User: Fold this.
Amino acid sequence: MIHYSLEDIDSSYACDEELGVSLYSDRTVFRVWAPLAEAVEVNLYESGDEGCPLFVKPMTKVGRGVWQLELDGNADGIFYTYTYSYNGERTEGVDPYARAAGINGKRGCVLELSRLNPRGWEESDFVSLSRPTDAVIAETHVRDFSKHPSSGIDSADRGLFRAFTVTGSLTPGGLPSCLGHIRRMGYTHVHLLPIADYGRLDETCPEASYNWGYDPENYNLPEGSYSSDPYDPRTRILELKELVMSLHKSGIGVIMDVVYNHTFKLDGSALSKAFPGYYYRYKDGKPSNGSGCGNEIASERAMVRKYIVDSLCFWAREYKIDGFRFDLMAVLDIDTMNEVSRRLREINPGVLLYGEGWTGGAIALDGKSSASKANAGRLDGIAFFNDGYRDALKGETFVDAAVGYVSGNHILRDRIVDGLLGREKWADSPSRIVNYCEAHDNLTLWDKLAVSAVSCHERDRKKMARLAMALVLLAQGIPLLQLGQEFLRSKPLEDGGFEHNSYASPDSVNSLKWDMLDENSEDAQYIAGLIGYRKRHRLLRLGSSEEVQTRSYVADPSAEGTIMLRLFDDSEELLVLVNPISRAKIFMLPDGEWEVNITDCCVSESPLAICCEGMFVPPISVMVLKRYRWKRSG
Ligand code: CA
Assistant:
């Protein structure tokens, strides 16, 4: 450990230099920030993991803590590392700014990334939305997406980035799977669990283990196990760009799950080697563990902030990533997140940004500075996961037996009304709220219902699942579903239980079972109908709290927890009727004729029935009725 004052470091050495490798036709320039290093050398290698360096070249200090080496010639394809000297000890590490690497990210690689664009890349552009609430997000994991044989993807492409470029794959029952399914559902964005290089999976034999990827190794290059050749640094870059291009071609945006709150390891990380101690927070001389993963990143320091901002801008520019989901965002500080938001909007004004408004433990940062849900009002254009609504819908996440509104806890009615209207005390607008009732963490919705609504018939649990998803898709905010929840995804264990935390579980637990889509195709079709309906009705996607307030009316509560919500604008009026109880319930309707658009099993823009005065709503279901306002005045 070297001793220094952090304040002095930032005031003496913080800089805005371009770091990493710059390639020119006649020269290659390496730059790394290591202000207190006694010496830094560049090691050049032929291979990503074997052999001794071809050359070792000393770098020179060029001011404000930056070391530089300028080599004659274009070194495209050469692998490299840096050797830093601290207190006379030499340590070799990967460039924190490495944008390409060989197997397992052991050595960086000098590559001209602009040469690694798939054909047609120039035409590939960000997906633009009028407002964040127009998005309907599907969360998935690259490997889960296609790993199961029922995905209909060729075995050579299963589990890889490439599976996202396959059109026309089918389930055993002949339904569109993978990309075809995403398109058919109407999702606007695919949110991918971490795709940057992570550490806990050996890329030389990916089949031997599995991981979600929340264990960052190299922040600025794709994970190798998703590439068809993890040894060739070009392949993963090209194949990820092909994934992005394929989704963009379908009008679907790509959201990257990013993990800037901690690194896989502290000792031995590329950041620690470049500047021991600087990138992490400490408490009483020990690494603080606000991530719950052994360390936490000190985002508030000038050059850590620059590192995070540079990294995100790189992904947005080079890979045309449409949005970012921040893991344990409350570990990071508000100023960094606002800088991230400002800089990313310069690249793409419509970038979607959201995060987890909590930490994984106590952080060594003043609570007032944390990018937490409690401080949401001080974050610019960044949304938060609405865990309160999630728990109200299906029951407390961390108590298996707890039931929610859809599974019998009707006293939560007012909480659900707040959720439907995007009325959260921490959010000043629906654009700040990500609504969901299932994500990769914890039990799937279907499994949660299995362990909490134990005595209920499967038929009723299906109604509960549909109702929970409907209440996400009809709520003001940004809806997010875990891919597969629309066909009742499950993560069963051999002992008859269900997996709560499948971060390192085998493919048998994690992979999307596309044959379940055949079994539950009516559920998926119903959810697709709701997504389509949401997209056609602006009243379900209002952009501000003021608008929600002036365009909505909630009827008085009932003893049984039912909800009658009216939404109206100049042209139409929607009536949302929610019946959470296990028998049909009559709702008295406001005057006039209403068209039935959504029932417990159908969604249709043309009237399924016309009704007035009263409407029977089936058990555990939602109905949506519509009338045109001009009919009333005309
Ligand atoms: Ca890796």
User: Anything to note?
Assistant: The CA atoms of residues 205 and 627 lie 59 Å apart.
